[in-house]
Write a structure and sequence with these properties.
By secondary structure, chain A is mostly helical. Chain A is built from 13 helices and two strands, in the order ααααααααααααββα. Chain B contains eight helices and 20 strands. Chain B has a six-stranded mixed beta sheet with strand order 6-7-8-3-9-10, with helices on both faces. In chain B, strands 13-12-11-14-20 form a five-stranded antiparallel beta sheet. In chain B, strands 15-19-16-17-18 form a five-stranded antiparallel beta sheet, with no helix packed on it. The chains are: A mainly alpha, B alpha+beta.
Chain lengths: 286, 360
């Protein structure tokens, strides 16, 4: 009798093992496809000019830092790192300051036209960026704000704000409204309940949203390129500057790209769990 | 010293009338139970009292002062929620201490008060845990502790026991009664469970579709229901109700004939007769004549339900009339299909208007 269930269990177990193998294989393929260009870029940034241009891929070489020095010191790209940090941080803070309270209101309050207004927030992301950036250019030109970091912060906040509202509404909706009510009976004002009780509860969501905001702004090219292409340009805007009439400086492009992707990788590793949760969250609840 | 709701009306956005001109007055120190089926407005009344919901019209007075516009924190009330609403990121100690902390009490006082209330609710060994690591009963006690620790004038409870299993619910009931006896805090307790209401309340308020149907001590509500709705809602099994007519001093419904005796003073016409299951007497065999204070009718025993120690006897007679009797001792010879003599004490008979449901 005891042999029977075992013989039944075995094909099932080996079946699930086979599926496991397939799944791991699929994941490996995805990883290779996703990482190969990045690893190639990473290696390229340490190759000398000949190795970069070689017809056959060069896998063994003695690493050089000439491109890093060439672009960040000689070409004075170092301030661009600061520009990128300033703009991405500023955008994140501004978007959160406005978007988080707005999302809370969307999650908690009932008012006429709420869903329409919420949808309107989302539609601001649907228009092609190029159609928005031209009027923005004219507007900021009149205001004399072109080529400042602030202008890019404002521009990036326009699209990050809808992201914050969209994601945070889901997080707030997941916190039972009785939390707000309990806090009010415990002696808080409505605003006090939001700041003291609900915000700490929503902290993981805020962190995930903040990272996403930061990444969106950090990677953004078009707005930054049109609105601030000289003094206040970001790292991403800096890269096309390395495409010269005499040829593209691939080694330096790779060096800038490596520096530009580092914070993204770091952030993603730190918050990946919350990030996935935050994204699926907004998708389901939004 | 009293709390008063005056003409409270609440209409929600969709046009649902949750409360329709509710007038209610109760004294401090009472254990007031708001009882009714779901959708009767009992939770809304509780939330309006707490200040979490604004009434569409009407006023709330506390010792004569109008508090209708006061925010929740200025009402001297606490609340236990059905889902307890404990702060998940705080320990049990921090949860209980929170209302004191927000109200800026001294550290030493907070510590003393928290430990006192924790002791009372047997939470002392759980003070360092987080809500995620508490059982339902423990979480419920923490919620009660948080509501009582700062000694509010009124403690509101919105179905606080409905997430507990049956045994724990009865234990917690006893505990709440003890707390009420010892602290003399005013409680307002919302429930749809009539047994909970009967066991806890010093005053029960029965609500139906946003209206107050009856207010009174549990005994009154049970024995002198003002309407058919209250009669059927309170008591398990529910009061028997039979629709029929009075003609010449005799109630008739199908083949059931109940002489009302001398001096009944009831007019002829359609009525609904009500009688509690435990007031019905059942005797073996179809003998026994009507005595002065009870009408005896012959019925057929249909079903025997032994819900030890009691027994429920479902009695039927022609014309689709059915009565449920509740007896403590049943004759062992009784079996379904037997003819039995059913005595209906006249003092236990209630008559309701078939249209309005009001007691006649």
């Amino acid at each position: 009798m005891s042999g029977e269930p075992r013989s039944e269990a075995r094909p099932m177990r080996s079946g699930s093992r086979a599926w496991r193998g397939v799944a791991i294989g699929a994941v490996l393929v995805i990883i290779v496809v996703a990482l190969t260009p990045y690893i190639w870029m990473f290696l390229t940034s340490f190759k000398n000019r000949l190795e970069v241009q070689a017809d056959k891929p060069v896998w063994t070489f003695s690493p050089t830092f000439e491109h890093y020095g060439g672009v960040f010191i000689d070409k004075k790209y170092l301030p661009l790192v600061w520009n990128s940090v300033f703009i991405a941080t500023g955008t994140t803070i501004l978007s959160l300051l406005i978007g988080v309270p707005a999302a809370y209101v969307f999650a908690r309050s009932r008012f006429r036209g709420k869903e329409d207004l919420f949808f309107f927030f989302l539609t601001t992301r649907m228009a092609p960026a190029i159609s928005v950036v031209v009027p923005m250019y004219l507007l900021f030109n009149k205001l004399g704000l072109l080529d400042t970091r602030v202008v890019v912060v404002l521009a990036h906040s326009t699209f990050n704000l809808s992201l914050v509202v969209w994601m945070m509404r889901g997080f707030f909706a997941d916190i039972p409204p009785q939390m707000d009510e309990a806090a009010q009976l415990d002696g808080h004002t409505r605003a006090g309940a939001f700041v003291r009780v609900i915000l700490p509860l929503a902290a993981p969501g805020i962190a995930a949203t903040a990272v996403l905001c930061f990444i969106m702004s950090w990677n953004e090219f078009l707005y930054a390129f049109i609105l601030a292409s000289f003094e206040s340009r970001t790292l991403t805007v800096g890269i096309p500057g390395l495409v010269t009439p005499h040829g593209t400086l691939w080694g330096q492009v790779a060096a800038v790209a490596v520096v530009a992707t580092l914070p993204i990788i770091l952030f993603t590793i730190v918050v990946q769990r919350h990030l996935v949760r935050g994204l699926t969250f907004g998708a389901v609840k939004g | 010293m009293a709390i008063e709701l005056r003409g409270i009306r609440k209409v929600f956005d969709g046009g649902t009338v949750a409360l329709d001109s509710l007038d209610l007055r109760f004294e401090r120190g009472e254990f007031l139970v708001l009882l009714g089926p779901s959708g009767c407005g009992k939770s809304t009344a509780c939330r309006i009292l707490a200040g979490l919901e604004e009434p569409s019209s009407g006023a709330i007075l506390m010792d004569g002062t109008d508090i209708t516009q006061r925010p929740p924190r200025e009402r001297d009330m606490s609340m236990v929620f059905q889902n307890y609403a404990l702060y998940p990121h705080k320990t049990v100690y921090e949860n209980i201490a929170y209302p004191l902390k927000v109200r800026r009490r001294a550290k030493g006082d907070i510590n003393r008060e928290v430990r006192e209330v924790a002791e009372m609710l047997s939470l002392t060994r759980l003070l360092d845990r987080r809500p995620a690591h508490l059982s339902g009963g423990e979480a419920q006690r923490v919620a009660v502790a948080r509501a009582l620790v700062w000694k509010p004038a009124i403690c509101l409870m919105d179905e606080p026991l409905s997430n507990l299993d049956a045994l724990l619910r009865i234990q917690t009931r006893g505990q709440l009664k003890r707390i009420h006896r010892d602290l003399k805090t005013t409680f307002v307790f919302v429930t749809h469970d009539q047994e909970e209401a009967m066991s806890l309340g010093t005053t029960i308020v029965v609500l139906e579709r946003g209206r107050l149907i009856q207010l009174g001590p549990p005994g009154d509500i049970y024995h002198r229901p003002k309407s058919r709705f209250v009669a059927e809602f309170i008591g398990r099994p529910a009061m028997n109700t039979v629709a029929g007519r009075i003609e010449g001093g005799v109630f008739r419904a199908g083949e059931l004939t109940v002489p009302l005796g001398e001096g009944h003073g009831r007019a002829d016409g359609p009525v609904v007769l009500g009688i509690r299951p435990e007031d019905i007497g059942v005797a073996d065999g179809a003998d026994g004549a009507g005595s002065g204070d009870a009408a005896v009718v012959e019925m057929t025993l249909d079903v025997i339900e032994a819900i030890e120690p009691d027994t429920l006897l479902v009695l039927v007679c022609g014309g689709g009339v059915s009565l449920t009797a509740r007896v403590l001792r049943r004759s062992p010879s009784l079996k379904p299909g037997d003819k039995v003599a059913v005595s209906l004490p006249r003092a236990s008979l209630r008559f309701f208007d078939p249209e309005t449901g009001k007691l006649l």
